[in-house]
Every structure is written in C-alpha cells, then in structure tokens.
Predict the 3D structure of the following.
Amino acid sequence: MLDRLREDIRAIFERDPAARSMWEVVICYPGFQAQTLHRMAHALWLRDCKLLARTVSHFGRWLTGIEIHPGAKIGRRVFIDHGMGVVIGETAEIGDDCTLYQGVTLGGTSLHEGKRHPTLEEGVVVGAGAKVLGGFTVGRGAKIGPNAVVIKPVPAGATMVANLARMVDKERDKVRAEQAEKMGFTAYGLSDDMNDPTVKAIHGLLDHSVTTDKRLDMILARLEQLGVDCSKERAAQDGFDPNYLNRIVEE
Ligand SMILES: CC(C)(COP(=O)(O)OP(=O)(O)OC[C@H]1O[C@@H](n2cnc3c(N)ncnc32)[C@H](O)[C@@H]1OP(=O)(O)O)[C@@H](O)C(=O)NCCC(=O)NCCS
C-alpha cells in the first residue's frame, strides 16, 4: 500500500514540474487523492460491497471532481493531472504509466452491459477535454490531443487530434443533392467530417474538377459537331476518378 503511494507520488514528480514536495502532492493533487480512494472503492467492488464502493467513489468525486466508477481498472503510476471533470466508466481499463488531463471522459456509447468503455494500454496520454467513447483499445503509447473525440480503436503510438462534431444543415444537404443530380457527382454527398477545413477544401476542389471536366467534354462535343477532330484531346484524358479520391478523403 505504502509502496503504491510512493510510486504514485514519484510518477507525479516525473510528469509535473510544478510539484514541489511530497506533502504538496498528498494535499493538493486531486488525481492522487482520487486514485487512492478508487483503490479502496475498487477493492470493495470486487468483494461485492457495491453500494459502499459507490459511496466511496462518490465521496472521491465530491472531494476531487474526478468521477471514477469503482469497477474501472487502473494500472500503476497513472497520473490524472488537475482532474476536474474527469469521468472514467465502469468497464474502462487504464494501463500503467498513462496520463490523463482535466475534462477527459472514458465513456460508453451504448447501454449494453459488458465492455462498453475504452481500454488504454500502457503510456497513453489523453489531453485535456478529450472524449474516448466505446469499448475499444487505445494502443500503447498513443496520444490523444486536447478536445479530441475518439470513437474507434487507436493503433499503438498514434497521435489523434481534432473532433468529429459537425453541424447538420438540412438546407445545405438539399442544395448538394440538387447539385449532385445536375453533375452526376458531389463529394459532399458522403462527407462525414465537415468540421475539418482541409477535408472541406478537398471536397470543394473535387466538385470543381468534376464540373470543369464536364464543361471540357461539352466544348469537345461542340467542336466535334463543327467537324473538328478531337480524338487526340480525348485520348489525353487522364484516369481522374473523383469517387476514389472522395473515398480516400472520407476514410
Ligand atoms: C496533441 C499532443 C498529444 C501531440 O503531441 P505531439 O506528438 O508532440 O504533436 P504536436 O504537438 O507536434 O502536434 C502534432 C499535430 O497535431 C496538431 N494538433 C495538436 N493538438 C491539436 C488539437 N487539439 N486539435 C487539432 N490539432 C492539434 C498540431 O497542430 C500538429 O499538426 P501539424 O503536424 O499539421 O503541424 C500534445 O501536443 C498534447 O496536446 N498533449 C496533451 C496536453 C494537455 O492536454 N495539456 C493540458 C495541460 S493542463
């Protein structure tokens, strides 16, 4: 028990240059306090004292602003910095040496019983305000950027940034559907990530290329009607496939 506490304090010194003394960590670090209480709550949970476990966990939340379900499994030397607003769900698992900042949610997206919260392998860093939602694994050493929303497995060592939120704009969808009917194609028809300016720009360019190709086709057809031989120009057409490029952008 004392060894674990010493280990936790050492981990905080290693990862927070602001920490000055052992007593400062014990008194002023909510992450340290929440995890100490969680160890008690988890032990009670495993001994089937569920209500008492929830009560200890609730006291921890009241004291620190960090909500850790007593069923969650937390490894060694995990550092929850600042902590306020952190929520860790019942079936979440956090590997050794992970770091979580304030406002992180390790949550679920379904009401099914069983594994519905994420597993973080060793050494994962989850930035302030990030939401990791679902019963998948975030691979060893991965980094989740501040405010990222992650809903799919993350490979080891990957860095994940930005979130998935987008505005659902029915009017815009209608305009795009009309555009797609006229052009026979629209990159936006499939888009899921309208929050990302790079994706927006690429979709805009794809739509523009398709329109430009159509106009060139019309010009060649007119010239051919006037008796001009355009076979060379037609042969020079490249294999531009907007649907393929669209799919790459969407993945
Ligand atoms: C995101 C993070 C995990 C990645 O660290 P890193 O591997 O050193 O990578 P970088 O900081 O160089 O960023 C890599 C890329 O992600 C982008 N990025 C970083 N954070 C981002 C965010 N929140 N949203 C969108 N893009 C972001 C950077 O602009 C950079 O893009 P570029 O390669 O096109 O220039 C790290 O910077 C971080 O923010 N850690 C958490 C810190 C935190 O929460 N602190 C709170 C203290 S109170």
About this structure: The first helix runs from residue 2 to 15. Helices lie at 2-15, 22-28, 30-46, 50-64, 170-183, 197-225, 231-235, 242-250.
